[in-house]
Amino acid sequence: MDIWHIRGGNRLDGICFVQGSKNASLPILAASIISPAQSQLRNVPQLRDIDAALRILRHLGCTAEQRDNDVYINSRGLNKSTIPHDLMLEMRSSVIFMGALIARCGEARLSPPGGCQLGKRPIDLHLSALRQMGCEIEESGGEILCRASSLKGTDIVLPFPSVGATENIMLAATAAAGETVIHGAAREPEIAALQEYMRGLGWAVSGAGTDTVVISGGSPAASVDYRILSDRIVAATFACAAAAAGGSVELRGVEPEQFSTVLHFLKQAGCDIITEKRSVWLRSSGKLRAVGAFETEPYPGFPTDAQPVLMAALLKAVGRTVIKENIFENRFRQVPELCRLGADITVAGNRAEIWGVDSLHGTVLTSTDLRGGAAMIVAGLCADGCTEIYDDGHVKRGYERLDVRLRSLGADIYLDG
Ligand code: EPZ
Known about the structure:
The longest helix has 14 residues, at 232-245. By secondary structure, this protein is an alpha/beta fold. The chain has helices spanning 22-31, 48-59, 85-88, 96-105, 124-132, 163-172, 189-200, 232-245, 260-268, 307-313, 335-340, 370-381, 402-408; strands at 2-7, 12-17, 38-42, 63-67, 70-74, 107-110, 136-140, 143-147, 151-152, 155-157, 176-177, 180-183, 203-206, 212-218, 223-227, 247-252, 272-276, 279-284, 292-295, 320-324, 344-348, 351-355, 364-366, 386-391, 412-416. It has two domains: 2-18 and 230-416, UDP-n-acetylglucosamine1-carboxyvinyl-transferase, Chain; 22-227, Enolpyruvate transferase domain (UDP-n-acetylglucosamine1-carboxyvinyl-transferase, Chain), CATH 3.65.10.10. The structure holds ligand EPZ.
């Protein structure tokens, strides 16, 4: 059990180098097996979920190791197409190995993935798309068995721009005869990153970043060297922390337009923000105004992953903010814990209403999920006294050395565990 100890009240000042993106790294790690190749990935964060993906790769017969922020994979030795239940349960992204194994082996045997408990997280869109491409899929006894003697390129219409389904289709499509066109594809920067990596591996992929992605064959390369983009949700978390605690922080290595919706609301709350190429400078008095209303949407809308941390930043903001969560049915799990700090939040269905309070008081909390845990840390930084957060490893799944980075900005935070 990790225990985060925070004494609130310190300003955050200084420069923060933002880590590489977890949600870009994970599908790329799965993609590394679509053809026999060596991948060198740079700027990969050191996280529990990345470890889990590397363990899956080694289980499949690849060599895969991380040295600091570099990952080296050789997928030539891949000799299995089954992923055991315990490895599948480690994280949601394990499901992206389905498309990758189908592409490489023509079959995959796995079980439904784990990941944060944010409500129902079905994989019906993934399975339906793979079936349309010619994959036979049996689901029985908690196992998913996929077989594809031959896949055909086809037009797939996604009724919702699912990030994971888009990624799975892109990978499986590398084994399809002819062109695969995904209509209604997710437009997240992580999809564009996957496209760039796949191009490096020799595949013809285009359109990522728009709602139409086309995969049309290719000739596999022997090796690829790819640098992972910065993590827009981690950047948003630091921006929210500095906004709430007060201070002056420069986020370096970031792509400001990738979290501009979050910056927009922090500006509205009263922060001064200057964006430059690959950096964001944010100054806050720590006294924020409520922002009226915001709602989560697929990219380029406001990201659901940043909703809990912006909520935490607004707990003391003067006035009322209403948040509508449109992506996950259970993404207000942090709310009861934030209320234990003295926050005034009421949840009705997918709406949360926050009335800013004068002060928060530190207490003992239990982290509920990755971003919920990060939200509790942001709240703890601006609460009076000490906050202790008992965290079953959630935060480490997505944040690399968060305690060290926050401490270097002046926060009084220690991590036991
Ligand atoms: C990715 O999850 C991210 N994870 C999530 O980040 C992120 O919250 C989410 O996209 C939305 O931006 C990774 O990239 C590893 P989806 P994913 O498929 O792919 C429904 C974090 O904190 N849906 O776009 O699982 C689903 O239930 C994590 O870093 C179906 O109904 O997201 C959800 O309501 C958490 N059927 C919505 O779509 C399907 O087959 C969005 O899911 C697939 C999804």
